[in-house]
Structure formats: structure tokens, C-alpha cells
Amino acid sequence: MKVAGDWLDHPGTQALVQALETAGHKALFVGGCVRNALMGVPVSDIDISTDAPPEAVSDIAETSGFKPVPTGIDHGTVTVVAEGKPHEVTTFRRDVETDGRRAVVAFSDKIEEDAQRRDFTMNALYADRQGTVIDPLNGLPDLLSRRVRFVGDPETRIREDYLRILRFFRFHAAYGDPAEGLDPEGLAACAALQEGLDGISRERITAELRKLLAARDPAPAVAAMSHAGILTRILPGADPRALAPLVHLEGSQEPRWERRLAILGGTGIGEALRLSRAEERRVDTLRQAASSVHTMAALGSVHGFRLGLDAALVRAASLGTALPNDWEKDIERGSYTPFPVTAFDLMPALQGEALGAKLKELHESWLASDLTLTREDLLKGA
Ligand code: ATP
Ligand code: MG
Questions:
Q1: Which of 46, 105, 119 to mutate to test the pocket of ligand 1 (most atoms within 8 A of CB)?
Q2: Atom 7 of ligand 1: nearest residue by CA position
Q3: What is the pLDDT of residues 69-85, one digit of tens each?
């Protein structure tokens, strides 16, 4: 079995791997790039696994004229920028000690040991510089049938790092067979050991949830998480029922995770997750929009185009209604149609608070008219 693609042919990538080989080391592509290439999914970042210790990786990279950056030196990772392209080069590792959150690792020169500490069989595939796939744990059949399975005993692997519970759902959402359920053994282990998630930092939980919700269709995985009690453990009060209708309504819209988070609801997102202020504000806006009565154009006017689209989708999904014809066009129109009245139109007759109140009232009438009232209509009423 072979992989191919522009990522593999990149001159910087080829030169870096060749330099490691010339120095007498093994250097293999691993993880996301091999998995995605095998599945025909675009490859984003390049991970390379090697038996060269990190100092040797840095030296070899430098001698070849590339820039090594010690991005994670204590766990063996050097980022090497070769011909403008970053590569995460990590020395083969094995776990020495785990506590459910982080691992103490030792470097290894055995690919089998490196493969054993990876989370899922589809993530434990390697490829050499020519694209020949190396499969130390027989993960290929799982990958080809799109089955997300833990490497080794699921319970043991989860106890080593409880974040793997969320990764299980995330990888199923992204790469699993949509027609098949989750691997029953893995799912049962996640359900049984979910308490361990309480010890995982909000940052790591948020990062995984973000990626899970950005999958094309996260609804089946989130429903399974909810059924197992894991959804409300990380997001108290969350309800997955409107997520599938939302994904359906989205059609070919970009799968935005904030919109999906908004539809899950729940209490105290700010405490449960680690979001930026702007993200929290947008999610909040979307939840409030779910109970607004604005027309499509008014949504575009109040929230702008992109957030307006999200608001319309979240509202329709939570009410179980369809989106009107031309909804996108109307939101777009609303997003660039200016409110025709300014403060100057009402001055000097009105001043201060009275002026503010009148403007607000006129703005609301204008929104309620689907942005059809003209300046003259509005001022006549004033
Ligand atoms: P993507 O970057 O597209 O989300 P990826 O597979 O590259 O997918 P990363 O999180 O970048 O995912 O991890 C790279 C590889 O490292 C994984 O494929 C897996 O082999 C291993 N890995 C990452 N996190 C863990 C973990 N918590 N436990 C075990 N192995 C892990
Ligand atoms: Mg990656």
C-alpha cells in the first residue's frame, strides 16, 4: 500500500527526510498525514517520527540548511522549517509513567514502541519517503473500514490519558463510517471511565470539543456522547437534540463550531470551557437570536452577514422550522442596508435621552418592517 500527494513530494519535506536517512536514521511520516492521505482527505500538517534523538534532529536539520525550533524538546519534538514548510519531527517514544493527564516519556529506537503509545489504530500508520505504508499494529484494515479503535485495551489506554475519551468521539466524527456506530468496546470504556475527564484542563477539553464540533457532521458522535453521559459532564445542561437538524439545515455552509456549540445550549459555558471573550459573546448572541422574531434581512442588519447566517440557522434548528426561500440573499441585503435615519434628523427637537429613545424606537420599527420603511416614512411617524 502506498500514499502519494503534493505534501509528500514537497522538496523541503523530501530533503529533510533524506538528510535524516543519510545520517543513518529512520525517518517516517506518521499520524494525520498518512491517515488523511490514505482516506483521500487533504493533508494539513506533517508529523515525522524518527529514531534520531532530538539533538541529532536539530544538528542534521541545521547542517542541511533548515531551521530547527525546539518546540517540545522534553517530549522529543523539534519543528523543522524546510523550504518554508514546517515539519514536526518527534523521536520514537514509549511511556514510562502516566497519570491520566500527562506522560513521562523515554526515547526509543523501536517503531513498535512508538506505535503502541498512539491512541487509535488509524493514527498509528507510518509511511517512508517513497510513500510505502508501514503498519506495525495492523491498523490498515480499521482505517479502510473507517473504524476508530483504540490501540490495545481501551480502558488501559484511557486511564493513561483521559483526554482520549474526547478524541475517540472527535475522530469518529471526522473519520468514522457515518453508517456505523462507534466501536462498542471503546464506547463502553469511555462511558465507564468518564469521571477521569474531571481532571483534564479546560483548555485541552475545549480544544478537542472545538475540533469535534467542526467536523462535517458531529451529530451522531455527540448523540453517543450524550447517551453515555459525557456531554453534560463537560457541558452541564447541554442537549444534543437540535444538533442533527442544524447540520441538516446547514447544507453546504461551512461547518462552524460556534454555531454547533450554541445549539447545544447548557449553563455556564464560560466556566465549563475556555473560550475567548469574542467567542463567548458570539455564542451568546446566537443563543439569544434563537428566540428573536427578526426577519432574515433584520438578522443580517443586526448581526452582519456571517453571524446573521448562523443566527438564522440556530433559530430554525431550535424551533424545528425550515429556512425561507432566499434566506441567504435576504441576510446579505440586510447586512449592507444602512438604517436611513440619523440623530441629526431628530435634532434639535429632541436631545439627550429622549433622542436616544426615539432613535431606538425608529430602529425597531425599521427592523420590524423588514427594512422597508424609508427615511420619510420613519420621520413622518416621529
Ligand atoms: P489532526 O492534526 O488532523 O487533528 P492528527 O492525527 O495529526 O490529526 P494530532 O492531535 O495532531 O492529530 O496528533 C498527532 C498524532 O499523535 C496522532 O495521530 C496520534 O498518533 C498521536 N496522539 C496525539 N495525541 C495523542 C494522545 N492524547 N494519546 C495518544 N496519541 C496521541
Ligand atoms: Mg496533527
A1: 119
A2: 32
A3: 999 888 899 999 999 99
Question: Ligand 2 centroid to 129 CA: how many Å?
Answer: 18
Ligand lying nearest the CA atom of residue 30: 1
Residues 133-182: pLDDT tens digits?
999 999 999 999 999 999 999 999 999 999 999 999 999 999 999 889 99
Distance in Å, CA 224 to ligand 1 centroid: 22
Sign (positive/negative) of CA torsion 270, 276, 277, 279? negative
CA-CA distance, 362 to 339, in Å (whole number)? 9
Q: Which residues contact 321 (CB under 8 A, 6 or more apart)?
A: 315
Grid coordinates representing 238 are 447541554
Which atom of ligand 1 is least distant from the CA of 44? 3
Residues 6+ apart with CB under 8 A from 10: 83, 85
Task: Give the C-alpha separation, 158 to 163, whole Å.
Answer: 8
- Give the global pTM: 0.93
Cβ-contact 255, 214 below 8 angstroms: yes
What residues flank ligand 1, with Cβ below 6 Å? Answer: 31-32, 44-45, 47, 118-119, 123-124, 161, 163-164, 167
Other beta carbons within 10 angstroms of residue 271's beta carbon come to 9
CA of 32 to the centre of ligand 1 (A): 7
